[in-house]
């Protein structure tokens, strides 16, 4: 399911990223790779997300979150 | 690149690299005594800055680089860092690492080590790491990586001597290192602790297939000893590295090899490479890092729950703005009055040298031109200082990134995203660094849009205009809201402008929003004072140079040439609506007896008057007379010149330069509606020369700078015209809302 479906306070594993070379590269440098565990800190139903990855907080736009598949 | 001037002193070129917001500039400032901007959000530094540090028989040429998460370089400022490291080959790279976020920060370290330059690892923010209960075995880390590791707390200046010693050591020089090597107090590194291991170059193994492919790729290159970093980038098919391959056929060969490797690989090469790096880092951290069971929700998260609340976030931002601007306004007033009185005294003293009524050009230049002009600008120094203090607080605490988050909702409506809002916020201070800050945006399109609308964010130089006009025309209860309305008008127009550009010149998809959210931090008092002082000094310097020059020129243009006795003032002059206008009668100048009328005749004869007369048909529909017109032209040099010119035109041969007296005269001449129109026009119109220059430089073309200047001037005219005409129809021409 897409990251957008994950509710606040839930942990999930990133499965795949539907995006180009650039987008994957930027996510990887921030520590987000397929297989990485993340926790959704803020998801208010609209607007960007805050996720916790490897101890840091990353803001992800909703459009991008839509293209990130995760497993709970 | 090591040059020796004095045999005893070695000069080392040292680059300070690391992830954004890891504290590089803080450390750079500590070592060099520089005052480069520091802030608690990623992307503060966007160009490299040089500084020197002389310590312990060592001359360090330090270069502070923009932060970067990797060396893949996707945005302009990341490219700056990457190019510097690869082309300048510094003697030592100081890799500043946020110890409270070790794993992610070491990702860049793996790349830096692959470049093969001597590296010193700085575990910065060890205070934060300790707060979070992290324990890092620095000695072990140093041993494994094969580079010196230094613990530091940048904002407290701890660990700097050790850093210098480690740099010397990394560069192959071994001065006496402190004896505290490898001491662990409670398991986590303390400042004062330096660990070092022998040579041993740790690097990430990418697996047999990948290594074989990289060796084959390396063979196709002319460079017989390519850096490991280059080989990895070839494997990743980094397009900038590929473009650097000049040998015929090399690119095809490399691409072919990469394709072969990809075919066998279950995932994309770049994902594969990144995974191998994180796996190696994971193994390393398992050895050197002990962390308690992470309580995921931190205090920052709890604050953010409210600050970034989906419903409360925006109102909170707007009220914060209201607070900031009204405070800069009202809290500055008492100090302002002191400065004001100083200038009144100065003007009176200078006037005292001449007999009353004596007509002296020198007296007029000193009192009307310089005190009326420059003094009129300097009076607002307290407001400026407070404004920059407020901005420094917003930057230092970490609110900037939150504002970006909150405003993403509006930004994405106009095709930008939240990150563009950070440059816009910086624009409240000064447009120049704000335009530089657009470098952090990934696409050129986002950058250009943001750059074009940036001057609509009302900068500090425009504050004196409001500070002069608002108290002149509006009662105290209305002053705060008025100021706020002006600022919000700027933001709204910037958004509308961005939307307009998006739907015409820059079509295309929205770029994804991705940003690190730093934890809240308490800015140190010294850092706030330093930033305040730096800005205050800049303002005074500007007043003493640019504005002084402009004031002298404007004074001359306003008072010269003087008319002959038979000059008959034209009657098509000064036609803009005015509450209480004195106009020159249509008789020869020599026969005018009323001093006020004579003055009006003189002004109509001066160069400024004549230019203004040409201008009046264009600006009269906005409610402006020639005086405002010339002041607005002067404002192109610097926005504050508007205030200076008002001081000059209205201080005409009178003893006082007091801003209250000037306000009285403004009130006598213009309606509050005109006052408001001046503010709106000054807000939107014609960015200053410095903005023009920096837009040209950063957009890479004169065309964009010209388009920005004329586009905004046209917009200013249209908006002001609409406000003035509608305002008049609604009956605001009179003294409604007047104090
Ligand atoms: N708690 C703590 N804060 C620090 C330390 N060092 C720096 N800071 C703060 O961290 C923030 C970032 O510092 P900067 O020096 O601007 O970081 P930078 O690495 O230059 O950031 P960019 O220029 O954006 O890449 C500032 O708010 C500093 O005051 C430290 O050791 N401990
Ligand atoms: Mg910096």
Task: Outline the fold blueprint.
The complex is a heterodimer of chains A (72) and B (739).
Chain A: E1 11-17, H1 21-29, E2 37-42, E3 49-53, E4 56-60, H2 62-66, E5 68-71
Antiparallel strand pairs in A: 1-2, 1-5, 2-3, 3-4
Chain B: E1 10-18, H1 24-32, E2 49-55, E3 58-64, H2 76-88, E4 92-98, H3 102-115, E5 119-124, H4 126-131, E6 135-136, H5 138-145, E7 149-151, H6 160-170, E8 194-195, H7 208-219, H8 228-236, H9 239-243, H10 250-264, H11 269-288, E9 289-290, H12 299-307, H13 313-330, H14 333-352, H15 361-378, H16 381-397, H17 399-413, H18 421-426, H19 431-437, H20 444-453, H21 463-473, H22 476-504, E10 514-517, H23 525-559, H24 595-605, H25 607-619, H26 626-634, H27 641-650, H28 659-669, H29 672-684, H30 689-699, H31 702-729
Parallel strand pairs in B: 1-3, 1-4, 4-5, 5-7
Antiparallel strand pairs in B: 2-3, 6-9, 7-8
Helix pairs in contact in B: 3-11, 5-11, 7-8, 7-10, 13-16, 13-22, 14-15, 15-23, 15-27, 16-23, 19-30, 20-22, 21-28, 21-29, 22-29, 23-27, 25-26, 26-27, 29-31, 30-31
The complex binds guanosine-5'-triphosphate (GTP) and magnesium ion.
Guanosine-5'-triphosphate binds next to α1 and α4 of chain B.
Main attributes?
heterodimer, A: about 70 residues, alpha+beta, SH3 type barrels, five-stranded antiparallel sheet, 2 helices, about 40% strand, globular, B: about 750 residues, alpha/beta, Rossmann fold, Helix Hairpins, seven-stranded mixed sheet, two-stranded antiparallel ribbon, 10 strands, disordered N terminus, binds guanosine-5'-triphosphate, binds magnesium ion
General description of the model:
The complex is a heterodimer of chains A (72) and B (739). Chain A is an alpha+beta fold. Chain A has a single domain, classed as SH3 type barrels, CATH 2.30.30.90. Chain A is 19% helix and 38% strand. Chain A contains two helices and five strands; from the N terminus they run E-H-E-E-E-H-E. A five-stranded antiparallel sheet of chain A has the order 4-3-2-1-5. In chain A, a hairpin with a 6-residue loop joins strand 2 and strand 3. Chain A is globular. The relative contact order of chain A is 0.34. Chain B folds into four domains: 10-195, P-loop containing nucleotide triphosphate hydrolases (Rossmann fold); 208-290, Helix Hairpins; 313-459 and 487-524, no CATH class; 527-560 and 592-729, no CATH class. In chain B, 57% of the residues lie in helices and 7% in strands. Chain B has a seven-stranded mixed sheet with strand order 2-3-1-4-5-7-8, sandwiched between helices. A two-stranded antiparallel sheet of chain B has the order 6-9. The N and C termini of chain B lie far apart (67 Å). Chains A and B meet through helix 1, strand 2, strand 3 and strand 4 of A and helix 3, helix 11, helix 12, helix 17 and strand 10 of B. Strand 4 (56-60) of chain A pairs antiparallel with strand 10 (514-517) of chain B. Bound molecules: guanosine-5'-triphosphate (GTP) and magnesium ion. Residues 24-25, 44-45 of chain B line the site of magnesium ion.
